Amino acid sequence: MKIFHHIQSATGATRSEVVVVLGLTAVLLFGHVLGRCTSGIVSPVDEPVSHMEVLRRLDSLLATSEPRADSTPDVASDRSNRANAAEHQTMPSSSVRSTTSNRRINLNTASITQLQTLPGVGQATAERIIEHRRETPFRRPEDIMLIRGIGEKRYAKMQPFIAAP
Hints:
This protein has seven helices and two strands, in the order ααααβαααβ. It is mostly helical.
């Protein structure tokens, strides 16, 4: 308790202010020590990772953790996977994203998360794509214009990134 009195008299601060400052100092010191202790365990981020890379890694984790007999994901499990991924994602799903890989997304097998990486495709449009392919698989990329909300302009933006057998 002498330390509080000594700091108060030296700085002219109230007891509450001294408690707050010492508490913040303790938290910062703990964070610094914890960071030093775990520096060998968790590698530091040298370069920022693109949102596409985060989505690709999440999809690969989901693919390895939940093997399925069929290759067409259902909407219910895609929604739960999307909810889990959204906890770690701060980017709005309706924003336009560019793809960093040269791989095209197959409209007949892509997950809801993969479909949402296409320019102009949000959750509602991705769900409409999945519903459409359940009834009628896509035969060519242009068939995506059969989906409500996807016209020639939107198709032109996503065309380089999509494929259909």
